[in-house]
UniProtKB/TrEMBL annotation:
Enzymatic reactions: urate + NADH + O2 + H(+) = 5-hydroxyisourate + NAD(+) + H2O
FAD-binding domain location: 2-338
Protein name (database record): FAD-dependent urate hydroxylase
Keywords tagged on the record: FAD, Flavoprotein, Monooxygenase, NAD, Oxidoreductase, Purine metabolism
Molecular function (Gene Ontology), one example: FAD binding
Presence of the UniProt keyword Zinc in the record: no
Keyword Acetylation belongs to the record: no
GO terms of biological process kind: purine nucleobase metabolic process; urate catabolic process
Cofactors named for this entry: FAD
Amino acid sequence: MKAIIIGAGMGGLSAGIALRRIGWEVRVYEKVREIRPVGAAISVWSNGVKCLNYLGLERQVAALGGMMEDMAYIDGLSGETMCQFSLDPLVKQAGQRPYPVARAELQDMLMVEFGREDVTLGAKLVGLEDDGTTVTAHFEDGSSDTADLLIGADGAHSVVRPYVLGHESTRRYAGYVNWNGLVAIDESIAPARQWTTFVGEGKRVSMMPVAGGRFYFFFDVPLPEGLAADRAATRETLRAAFAGWADPVQRLIDLIEPERTNRVEIFDIEPFHTWTRGRVALLGDAAHNTTPDIGQGGCAAFEDSVALAIALQTNTLGIEDALKRYEKKRTTRAAGLVLKARRRCEVTHALDPAATAAWYDELRHEDGSRIMHGILSSIEGNVLD
C-alpha cells in the first residue's frame, strides 16, 4: 500500500514514519524549496513525547529536549515571584517528562528518520482526484503521483482542507502577536531548568530551556491584526511594549538577535469534525489549527499520526472505513484542545480584563496543583492512554 503525504512539517513527517512502521510505502511532497520551521521552539508535552517514543524516537527526542524541572510565574512589573513549584508530580502522573525542543532540530531529526530522499521539495499541490480505488495528486510543475491514500498535512493554509470540507475555512485572529527565538541561558534572567513566565498588562514573557544551553523565549503582546513590522526594529518595539517591566525582561530584550527573532500573528480556526473524504484525510494544523496557549498544537499532530497508523493497521474493511475510524477517534479531542487554548488565550491576553486580573490574583496563591491539573487535563485522554 502507498500513501502520499502533502506537507513535510512535523505532522507530515511523523505520519510518514508511523505509516512506514506498519509497512506502507510513503512519499512526502512539500511546496517550499527550503524548509524553515515557523517558530524557534515547541513544547512537546508528555503526550507528544509518548507518541514519538511509540514511533521509535525515544532516544532522539530526549537528546533534543531541555530539562524543565520547575515552573514559575513572575509579576512582570515588580519582579515579584507569584508562584514557583516543581513539575515532578506532573511527570510522575503523566509517566513521561515533557521536552521543550528547538523546532529546526526536531524538524531535522524527523526528516532524517523518515529519509530526505523520499521528500520532494518545491512541489505545490494544485489538484487531486479520488476515483474510489486510488488518489492522484497533481502538482504545479505538471507532475503527478498516485497512491492508495492521500494525507493533507499541509498546515494552517491547507490546500487539501477545502477538498475535504467542500468549502474554505476562515482563520480567526486571536488578538495578539508573538515574538520568539533562542538565546544562551543566562541565570541572571531565569533559572536554567525552569519554565519562567513574566505576566502583566495582558502580556507575557516566557523562557523554557532547550538542549544546547539555550532558552526558548517568547513575548506576547495584544495588538491589532495586520500592523506593519520591521525586523530590524524588534528590540525597540519590545522595549516600548515592555517599558517599566522588571530588569530580567529588559536584559532578555538586550540579548535577543532581531535577525533571528520571529514575529507571528496568532490565529486559529473554528473546530470542525469532517477530516476525511473517501481516501483523503487531514492531519495536524490542516485539521485543527490552534493557538499555542496550551502548547498542544504539535502534540496533537503527533497523536494524529499514531492514531492514523493504528486505524490503518487494525481495521480491515478498507481504507475509507479506517479513515472514518481515525476521524471518529480524533476530532472531539482535537476540537477540545483548540477551544481550551482559545479560552486560555482570552484570559492570558486580557480580552476580559477582570478575568485576567482574577487570574493574576490566583497565581499569587498558587501552590502548583491547579496549574499542573490544567496541564494534565490536556495531556490525558490522548491516543496512547
